[in-house]
Write the structure tokens for this entry.
Amino acid sequence: MAFSRREVSIRLGLRAQLGAITAILAGVAAVSVGFVSLDLTRAQLVNERASQAVYNAPRIVEILTSDEEQRFPPGVVAAQLISGESVVAQQMPSDWSEFPHLSASGARRIELAGGDYVVVAHELVNGQRLAVVADLSDLDERMATATVATVLYAVLASLFVAIVGYLALTRLIVTPARRISLAAERVAAGDHASRVDVRSANEIGRMAESLNRMLDRLESGRLDLEQKVVALNKAHHELAQAQDAMIRGEKLATVGALAAGVAHEVGNPLSAILGMVEILNDESLSHDDRTDLLGRIEKELLRIHRIIGDLLNYSRPSGDGPAQADVPEVVQTVLKLVEAQPDFRDVHVTLTFEDSLPSVAAFPDRLVQVVLNLLINAADAVDGEGRVDVHAGRGQGGQVDEVWIRVSDDGPGVDDQQLKEIFRPFFSTKAPGKGTGLGLAICEQIVTSFGGRIWYEPGASSGATFVIAIPVLKSSRVQPGGGA
């Protein structure tokens, strides 16, 4: 199994730390035991020399009380026999100024004349007290041997404990921790079914079980979230379809209203054409009169063709073109659609555009639908006789550059009660049966989908103004503007 550099460094770091800690602890323990062992060995050697002195006490008393010169047992360098407060007999090296004093029975280690000794006081059966001085000069040699053995033992013991502890800790900690880390890495990489296979009754095992339970809950939550996302996407798609259907329905309602006006507008030219066709059937008609009639018929037919063509263009389903619209062109398209309507015959429409208007981030046909709705509402507000002003210019919405389209009329305006409801679906101030009540609601929905805004402004004395603000297309080039 291949491991990443980061994972290998973590593993080696943990192993090295455990090994170092184990070795240090084992070394400290071994050194401590070694020092204690050396102290015990030293004390044991001193006690051993003192015990030898006590064991040889009868022989030493005999030597002290004998008139003959005799040598002390090995290791004994001096002795003193005391009765009460007086010294009965003593023997010590000539370079000693006095015999070491020991007030009570027992043993005491001393340094005298550059030598290392132990003084042992022993109560005899007859009430006398024997003080024996034993030489400890060979103690350092024996301790050196013991020290070497102790150090060797400490090194071997610490090495053994470190190896055993390292292997045990690796098995109990490092390996389970690596499995937990690998499982977490797999989950982070997208393997949501990955789990930790650690079977242990210690804290590592409980941590692995807790991690597995957490992963189970995360997986369950993820599946629930995916289901909710699918449901939300489906609901969003259905809502978008419903909104598109509502927009198309409102558009068809507008087409129906426009078609009624177009039928009336086309009826008069057709009647005139029929009359001129009857005149053309007169064989006595001169060539010049016939040519004049044909020209007038062509003019009326072109007018009918243009009116019907504009209506057909508007009624076609929206295409999949880019969201880029030229505002003056949109407004001119709307004006062509309404100029043939009877309701606009006595309405004076004024168009003004600021120079160099940029394109906006909007679908042209949808923007035409919005402006057309506002113009139809304005014509209804002035009851077919009045003034409607359409102005397009630059605006600012916070940090966003926008193009504002203002549609104003000199009608009665909107009262405060209606103002709260005008953008609510199915709210209408028109007579029953006239309009769907979706016009302004659809306008708001369309404008919002462009990232724009729409709002109402009351006139200075009367009338109403609706303002559309559409964000400028970021890659837009400046468009030439004009006035009408």
